[in-house]
């Protein structure tokens, strides 16, 4: 008999199940992109200016211009992601930057020029695809889901009976991963669960004598683009200032699959009553999987303020502040689960369940990214050399997420404060002018981890929202860069090579910390190597 807990449905607050803390982190990052000259010096332009990319970094760089500038940048990315022993390669073409700076020369020693500019910049490409497996797992995601459900206040096993049209965006506090993996219809017309209620507690498929392997796949797509409108100027050829208004477009798609093959699994009989003990786990097998699809899209705005001071000809000092980007977001979401149960190598049943009877659901919310501060120094060496250093502070713990009225979700805000810490970015770049036409460039950047030590060392029980227990984060990001530039009269072209190395951590679910002790999770180190060739064509007039 199919049951619907009508009173439970009516008692739920109608709130949107927005993204969790690690999704917010993923969508709030920037990477090294822009013009080829900017990339070839690792983005260390905070005190230099005079480049179309500086509008996304230190808008005071627009004040350095004495002539108008028009340019476009193309790039070809060769991505390689490795998780364990599995390696996947992809190639992607992008337009990284298109811009125009208009220089207005004034007949004044106090304010020699006032400038304005419009640019398009790709801030981040989310494209990454990796797969892997973990052998001899020590627990199961099903056990994690069952354990998490027990810890949700105000819910009991009877609340997990749900019609096939359940919507994971209906309530942010409902244990949707448990709903997904409970009360699954079988090919025999009965009902079973990947998690089940028995003997007064919830249990998963893994127990004494169970062994097995896990498999995962993460496929991410999308971009974050910024359209800049900037204004700046020059005061006595000593102080340069700039103000930038950014309009952002974010489009992020994610498909995440997690599967387990378990021998001697604690499976249930094919019966309508899920409140029962599992069958004898000898010679049983369970193949099951959880599949999550997410499409996040939104538009946002931010502001940037910047200054560059030139006390002497040989020295430049820069500073810039970026407000958070305030996004209005919309998510489209779908989840499904499957289970195949065997005993003595004979199929007992197949079961599956999906959100909203197989259709996508949508929800809206607001998101604000971290604020940023950039401090910079640059030195001019004679008439041929430049060396530049940037330090960037990214306040990851200030990220916020809220409802579509802008009211923050306090639970996600608290998680952001608990899980994340500021990250620090160091960029150093240099340029040597071989002759009036040709220049050589090189650079290096390093970004520190974004998560607290307790997250990386599995001291926290990480709670995610929705139906996906998986979370991932970057530990370090490095860029090694070089390039060459050519100038002839008003025309210029720049070529850059960027090698990006990113070390990340994939976690299928949080470690389980319960009354029975610590059970490790299923995790893997993920390494990305991105090789990019970038070409800029432009003219100054």
In brief, what are we looking at here?
The strands form 3 sheets. A 14-stranded antiparallel barrel has the order 1-2-3-9-10-11-12-16-17-19-20-21-22-25. The chain contains 7 helices and 25 strands.
Task: Write up what this structure looks like.
This protein is mainly beta and 541 residues long. It has one domain: Porin. 9% of the residues lie in helices and 54% in strands. It is built from seven helices and 25 strands. Strands 1-2-3-9-10-11-12-16-17-19-20-21-22-25 form a 14-stranded antiparallel β-barrel. Strands 7-8 form a two-stranded antiparallel sheet. A hairpin with a 3-residue loop joins β16 and β17. The N terminus is likely disordered.
- Share of β-strand residues: over 45%
Shape: elongated
CATH class: Mainly Beta
Question: How many distinct domains?
Answer: 1
**Structural class given helices, strands, pairing?**
mainly beta
Helix content: under 10%
Calculate the mean pLDDT score and round it.
Answer: 86
CATH fold naming:
Porin
Q: Judging by the overall fold, what is the CATH architecture?
A: Beta Barrel
Cα Rg: 27 Å
Q: CATH homologous superfamily name?
A: Outer membrane protein transport protein (OMPP1/FadL/TodX)
What count of helical segments does DSSP give? 7
